[in-house]
Design a protein that fits this description.
Number of domains: 5
Helix content: 25-40%
Strand content: 15-25%
Radius of gyration: 41 Å
Strand order of the largest sheet: 9-10-7-8-11
Number of helices: 19
Largest sheet: 5 strands, antiparallel
Structural class: alpha+beta
CATH superfamily of the largest domain: paz domain
CATH architecture of the largest domain: Beta Complex
CATH class of the largest domain: Mainly Beta
Distance between the termini: 53 Å
CATH topology of the largest domain: paz domain
Shape: elongated
Length: 730
């Protein structure tokens, strides 16, 4: 037999290389000797091999390569300095041949398998290894490509994209643009305002704490009746210096509006929204109202109107107050307006632009061009005029020296006035705020104004009415958010009945992020939901996947509970439209009478909402448009899944929490048939009772275990191989 020839180059003086070469030469001599001494000249053209094939992938394995695959599987098992996992083979002579008994390490998917009787030890070993590989694949310890790793054959828990979990953490903080849902119950029907309507009437109740202010009673009027749960709305509106107004609504039936009343109501709402939010439009001498009679389908429809202090059936709306405000000179055509020329000192006052009855001036809104400010007139100070003293000088001298204004009618009594406020977000606690302006607000600061410097804008627009109107935007914002939470509750209830048990306020809390600056947020619920989710997913994986080791179980759990997976599941259920991630900004409060003018469409979307590059100037990217777009982090959307899970646990218990997880797409169960298989399998560990004092341990921790096999397994290191059970790694 011809031999191959080789040339080896060794490092001079390297004894380890010399020894290795000697071993190669010795092995070659032994192999040649075996060949020369063989007694049979029979040749085997083909060895019959058993083959296992995976239909889904086409991957296959035969008895010839099963041994190496099994060793590779053991190499991938967890190890430490005290333990190196490897298979053990024992051979038993049987009547029909030699049987190989294969023992796997304690941290393998299973411990033992017996092969079929074979003519030789090598064939018996290969047969046992093939049988073990088949079982490993069935248990999920081998993938569908018959490689060691996390299996995919027994997927019972839905994961959307396992590769997502390997992305950078920055991916979770990526922002994307989404629409915010507008409550369907507040959306208008396609109709004109110059039509008759039957509207549902809700009385808005204000309870000030302390009771130091008076508030004009108001009513909310909507086309569709609100859900019953929203009628229990109870919200605290936080004013300056720890003052609170508790607000709520009470349903009082339906009221019919004729065409004229609908126009009056629309104009009144447009009027007070302009005064509160767009007061620069009130500086001209003439203000046009009711320019747009159509209803915007992308906005909300409701009316906020003053009601009488005592209810009178269908006459509860204070129409005289509405008409009085709308009859003000500012809303009259200047061409047809006749000024009050007759001046009666005891009954009239000369204001900037005309002479008016004192009764019209009291409880009105005036504008002072020299300061560009608006004021509520609370009273007429009959005992005080411009000749009265103010800090050592008269009012007339003060205005002349400080403002260079010479008063023409110093004999007129001064007006006691309160400056028109700026709207604030009243949904968060302002107790710690202590600015100078809010200190004046606490004491209800008044000033004295000469009538001739004041332009009369709205008759009958008193400070009591203004105080109520300052509360309504924050109240309506909370009501809209509550209605959105109720819509989500209805969606979930249509899929699983357990959702009907949860409160809408709980859902709202789980949808409200900390950026809203409200007294509720999802943070606490998220912590609870996150802990529970990791527990139930880890438990489910442990019970369902007996072929996975600790590392594989951890990776599978991480894939399921990762932010990327929760984000994908949330998007599938459209949860992003319900999330509230912006604080209430009164300047972006839009309602009937003040439509949003930033029209958003696909062509303008990128221009209106540019990508947020600078996180410190995020408010510039949150422009309110007709589609209510806002930017959301992927992690924020994922957090909402955990917070919703948390509120289900708190309010409804584990059964409802599991129902929610099934709905969102995480198919885990607490009652799993495989659970009893795990308990039965743990009985093999009872042989270790002599190695450990279980009673002493139970007494120490104060708990008696029903299934002591699992407890024993928790203390077994994989290097311990004196029993047939598992170890703490499986």
């Amino acid at each position: 037999m011809s031999k191959s020839k080789y040339v080896f180059l060794l490092e001079r003086g390297n004894h380890s290389q010399e020894k290795l070469l000697d071993d190669y030469i010795t092995g070659e001599i032994i192999m040649d000797k075996e060949i020369n001494l063989r007694t049979s000249n029979d040749m085997f053209n083909c060895l019959e091999e058993n083959i296992y094939r995976v239909n889904d992938t086409g991957a296959s394995i035969s008895t010839a390569c099963s041994v190496s695959l099994l060793h590779r599987y053991c190499d991938n098992l967890p190890r430490d300095i005290f333990f190196v996992p490897s298979p053990s083979f024992f051979f038993v002579d049987d009547v029909d041949g030699i049987v190989c008994k294969l023992i796997l390490p304690p941290n393998a998917a299973f411990r033992q398998v017996n092969g079929q009787p074979c003519p030789s030890k090598d064939e018996a070993k290969r047969d046992a290894c093939l049988k073990a590989c088949i079982k490993l694949h069935e248990l999920g310890a081998l993938t569908d490509f018959l490689l060691p790793g996390q299996g995919s054959r027994k997927i019972k828990v839905s994961t959307t994209n396992n590769s997502e979990s390997n992305k950078d953490d920055d991916e979770s903080f990526r922002e994307e643009l989404y629409e915010m849902l507008i409550p369907a119950v507040l959306r208008p029907s396609r109709c004109k305002l110059d039509s008759s309507f039957k509207l549902h009437f809700y009385y808005i109740e204000f309870i000030p704490i302390p009771a130091d202010r008076r508030y004009q009673m108001f009513g909310l009027f909507v086309i569709n009746r609100l859900p019953e749960e929203s009628e229990k709305l109870d919200v605290e509106l936080h004013l300056a210096r720890a003052r609170i107004v508790k607000a709520g609504i009470k349903y009082l039936g339906k009221i019919e509006f004729n065409k004229e009343e609908m126009i009056l109501a629309h104009n009144f709402q447009e009027m007070f929204l302009k005064v509160l939010l767009d007061r620069s439009e009130f500086t001209p001498s003439y203000i046009l109202l009711g320019n747009d009679g159509a209803l915007d389908m992308d906005s909300t429809f409701y009316l906020l109107l003053p009601i009488k202090q005592k209810f009178y059936g269908d006459n509860m709306i204070d129409w005289p107050a509405v008409k009085r405000c709308l009859s003000s000179p500012a809303f009259q055509d200047p061409m047809g307006l006749s000024l009050h020329d007759s001046y009666l000192p005891n009954e009239s006052l000369k204001l900037l632009g005309g002479t008016y009855n004192k009764a019209d001036v009291i409880g009105s809104l005036v504008y002072t061009p020299h300061t560009d400010l608006f004021f509520f007139v609370d009273a007429i100070l009959d005992g005080t005029n411009a000749k009265s003293e103010l800090n050592g000088a008269t009012y007339a001298e003060h205005f002349k020296q400080r403002l260079h204004i010479k008063l023409s009618h110093p004999e007129q009594p001064l007006l006691k006035a309160k400056q028109l406020f700026c709207l604030r977000n009243l949904l968060h606690n302002r107790q710690l705020e202590s600015t100078e302006s809010e200190a004046r607000e606490l004491m209800e600061h008044f000033v004295e104004l000469p009538p001739e410097l004041c332009s009369l804008k709205i008759i009958g627009f008193s400070k009591d009415m203004g105080s109520s109107l300052s509360l309504l935007p924050s109240l309506m914002y909370r009501l809209e958010n509550l209605l959105v939470a109720i819509e989500l509750k209805d969606v979930m209830s249509s899929y699983f009945p357990e959702a009907s048990q949860i409160s809408a306020s709980g859902i709202l809390e789980s949808l409200t992020t900390e950026r809203c600056l409200e007294r509720i947020s999802l943070e606490r619920l998220e912590v609870l939901g996150d802990a529970f989710l990791k527990y139930v997913v880890g438990r489910h994986n442990f019970i369902s996947y007996e072929g996975l080791d600790e590392g594989q179980l951890t990776r599978r759990r991480s894939d399921i509970v990762s932010n990327s997976n929760l984000y994908e599941l949330s998007i599938r259920r459209n949860l992003q439209v319900y999330i509230r991630d912006q604080h209430f900004e009164p300047t972006q409060f839009f309602a009937l009478g003040r439509p949003c003018k930033v029209v958003c469409n696909p062509d303008r979307e990128a221009t209106l909402h540019p990508k947020n590059i600078d996180p410190d100037r995020r408010e510039n990217c949150n422009l309110r448009c007709t589609k209510s777009h806002h930017w959301l982090h992927r992690k924020t959307i994922a957090d909402v899944v955990e917070s919703l899970l948390g509120v289900f646990i708190v309010e409804c218990g584990f059964k409802a929490a599991f129902a929610f997880l099934h709905w969102i797409g995480i198919k885990v169960d607490f009652e799993n048939s495989a659970f009893y298989r795990v308990l039965d399998a743990s009985s093999t560990n009872l042989s270790l009772m002599n190695y450990m004092n279980i009673s002493e341990l139970e007494e120490l921790i104060g708990y008696t275990f029903k299934r002591k096999g699992l407890l024993l397994q928790a203390f077994v290191h994989p290097s311990f191989n004196k029993h047939s059970g598992g170890c703490y790694q499986v």
